[in-house]
Write a structure and sequence with these properties.
The protein is an alpha/beta fold and about 260 residues long. About 45% of the residues lie in helices and about 15% in strands. Helix 1 runs parallel beside helix 4 and helix 6 crosses helix 7.
Length: about 260
């Protein structure tokens, strides 16, 4: 593992995975996501592990996808690359997955946090789906999970403007369960994880499955629709301009074509 750090016995019954691309603000490239998938599946099979915590660092949980890796690709190339198959495999983790978020959780970072079962945020956490600013839309579940978490109106606002949401606002709208000082983030999440780890792992698994069944009814259909539209943005000039402007650190000039 090069881009994540795994502590299998962070505490009795609790494992910790830390995203570890600090210079890139933990941007999610294919290698990181594959390492994360492999680590999660290994921990999911480890009997001594009952709960898994996922975190980044104080500056960023994950500040989005690796734009340079996608910017020049065509819609067909994105379809063939099928980068979201890794995300689909992560969805199948059976054990509780808790996100401890400080700093930026944007784009793919916000989508990754929302794939977890619970989010605890520090006071510095900022959530958002700013893909619209680079000429595309969320592609890893943002339009579906954010809408289910915060409601249609707030999801529309955040996705169509690209605005960031504070930790306090995330709690108010039901995206995160609580806000704590930065220095208390890991102790707070660990206490929650240990409380869960003390319960029957079979009951915990079945309870998680039952809650997700209620939450994810028709989600597959929504994800498939979102994904096709995500790929379609790569046929637009605005996507090429938006991502190139991001790389060149300038304001994009969108033409609507």
């Amino acid at each position: 593992m090069e881009l994540i750090i795994v502590h299998e016995q962070y505490a009795p019954g609790v494992a910790l995975i830390q995203l570890n691309r600090p210079k890139e603000l933990n941007a999610l490239n294919p290698q990181l996501m594959q390492e994360l998938r492999d680590a999660l599946h290994q921990l999911d099979r480890t009997e001594a592990v009952r709960v898994i915590i996922l975190t980044g660092n104080e500056q960023a949980f994950a500040a989005g996808a690796d734009i340079k890796q996608m910017a020049g690709k065509s819609a067909v190339e994105m379809l063939i690359m099928d980068q979201f198959s890794t995300w689909d495999q992560i969805r199948k983790v059976k054990k509780p997955l808790l996100a401890a978020v400080s700093g930026f959780a944007l784009g793919g970072g916000c989508e990754l946090a929302m794939m977890c079962d619970l989010i605890v945020a520090s006071e510095t956490a900022r959530f958002g789906q700013p893909e619209i600013k680079i000429g595309t839309i969320p592609g890893a579940g943002g339009t579906q999970r954010l809408t289910r978490a915060v409601g249609k109106a707030k999801a529309m606002e955040l996705i169509l403007t690209g605005r960031f949401m504070s930790a306090e606002e995330a709690v108010a709208y039901g995206l995160a369960i609580k806000v704590v000082p930065v220095e208390m983030l890991m102790p707070e999440v660990l206490a929650l994880a240990r409380e869960m780890a003390a319960h029957s792992p079979i009951a915990i698994q079945l309870a998680k499955e039952a809650v997700n069944r209620a939450y994810e009814t028709h989600l597959d259909e929504g994800l498939a629709f979102e994904r096709k539209n995500f790929y379609l943005t790569f046929a637009s000039e605005d996507q090429k301009e938006g991502m190139q402007a991001f790389i060149e650190k300038r304001k994009p000039d969108f033409k609507g074509r």
